[in-house]
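Quick note —
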Amino acid sequence: MLRRSHQSPGARGSQWSALAEELRSGTGAKVRFDDGARGLYATDAGNCRQVPIGVVVPKTIEDVVATIAICRRHGAPVLSRGGGTSLAGQTCNTAVVIDWPKHLGGVLEVDALLLAGYPDVFEAADHVTEIAQCAPIGLEGLDRKLLANMRKKRLQVEHLSLLPDGGAFLLVEFGAKTRQEARQLAETAKRRLSSERPARTLKILDDPSEMHQVWDIRESGLGATARVPGEREHWIGWEDSAVSAPSSRRPRSSASRMVARSPESTGMEAFREFKALWDPEGKMNPGKVVDPYPLTSNLRLGADRPPPAPWKTWFRFPEDDGGFTSATLRCVGVGKCRRQEGGVMCPSYHVTGDEQHSTRGRAHLPINVDMATYKAEFNAHYYKGRLRPRPAYSMGLVMFWARLAALAPRLANMLSRQQPFASAAKWVAGLAPQRVLPRFATHTFQRQARNHAPSMRGRRVLLWPDTFNNHFHPETARAALTVLERAGFRVEVPRGFFCCGRPLYDFGMLDTAKWLLRRTLRQLRPVIAAEVPIIVLEPSCAAVLWDELGGLFPEDPLAQALSRQVLTLAEFLEVHAETVTLPRMAGRALLQGHCHQRSLHGIAADLSVVPRMGLEVEDADAGCSGMAGSFGFERGEKSELSRRIGAQGLLAKVRALPQETLVIADGFSCREQVAQETNRRGFHLAEVIFRGWAHSEVRPEAQEPPVRRRWAALAAGAAVAVLTSAVLGAALSRRQRV
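Predicted structure written out below.
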């Protein structure tokens, strides 16, 4: 009998430096032995944490073979890692981690999916033996409680209708070379189950899109059981258990015969002997399955973990016991953010394939990991008393620059868009020279609305004048005003400075963001008290009022009321104008849902309203457009990564569209990315509806300001531009000296 101690080989030392050098010279793989990479691979979806010796990302099978040979010469353990989603610590170890998915993760196979519904999990379990005899390539179970939790947390709710009737379900996957062969295997299993012990409901799926949606439900299962609102904390990993299922099959391999001839109590001894044949030195993922580490060892949150520090934070984290430490524990490593296509997360990982660019890599998504909030909180503390990057002052403060530009929009556009001024302006602002800065509107929407005679009939609504549609695309806001009035509503456009502070969060300027929200609450107090619906055209701004507002003011009833009253245009039309007849339009439309909206409210309302106009709508489901606020404008790798993200998803779909197909995108960043990287234009839903009624494009009103005001504005704008350049230049010089 072979038994080994659990002495760790250690993750540091000169022997591993030599190992790293030989791996770099002897393979074509990416080799990382730095602390950052080792920390990224120290955990999986379980409760363990073991820092690896190093990480190897192979590009070819030959790289893998060479890596194992080199590690053997150096006496280093090895660990093959796929998605890193195991629940019992199988994919973390003090070893050289071989990370397969980036270059070697694809498996081509055509599948069919059999869904079986049962009254409860016990009856579902009774069928496992029969199903196993049908040779499926995958078998998973779901129960009523898990689905209830998914509804509480709004996880994959739109896909639950694909499941058959029942209180528990088995998902049985069959693989083959063709769809027809896979379907036949599923049909055979269905007939067998129906004849032997009828299930409540049986359903076969072979459409790739529907199967993907059902597997999304299953993959969200771990996220559905953790951090359930109103329930005690669940710790993943501990609740999983395994039991043996009786089997009437004859063993087909020498390994299975070795296990089968032994009583169940000695089955592990048989497997230990089998593993020893291939791994006599115990270097292949040691301490896992065979001679495992003690259950309480290598815990990332063990009994010796110090209590969390009582940090004073800007966000209050009301759903995490009011603590930042508790919030950062939300990620349980299920790897949903590592999906290769579609979905909201994670756009950077889509392009790079690097763990460090996944949400899990940065948080360590269906556990509602709010990476943007964590980043904002961290930056707020890190940059306290420090000079921020240049884009923080140019893009982060865009709401103030836009108000200044409104005094002299032609001068502002000349300085930001015409050479040689544009290049200098971009350098000072820290923006990519390849990007074209958006054009300031000649007249803001708020100014145009002052000259508009409002309708005095219908229910009162407020149209929020966000910075982007007020200062850059007033035609969008004006279209929304027309649409709402034509639908029978009395629209109010507030005067003065209104801003949710969306760009501030990207750079951690939370003191200014909180000031703006307090100001907004004071300004809208009468509107909130009257329960007037508030329509926000820019999804990222709506997201601030849905989410960040509550995180900063969780105990303020006024903030809670405001959050409830905020709606997108589609949501408002779906809830309050479901009987309004929208214009009829023929054709097709590609709908790009904003990432913030998808993650918080979803785009079901958009997918419902667009067909009401007679348009055949397709959900782009392309993930982030790549622009992501200031991200796509920033100088350096961010701008390039932005283009790659877009080219892989949304931009590829837009470029392939027939010219007559509409591109609908409510997000300013989404439309800007489409405009700058394709020969197409994206339209806000308000513009599409307006065009359907007016049969013409929306254009800004051509009103000229008084001559004296224009020249005064030009002089003021020029003076401020010169002063700003001097201040930023001095600050940058000071930063370089520091």
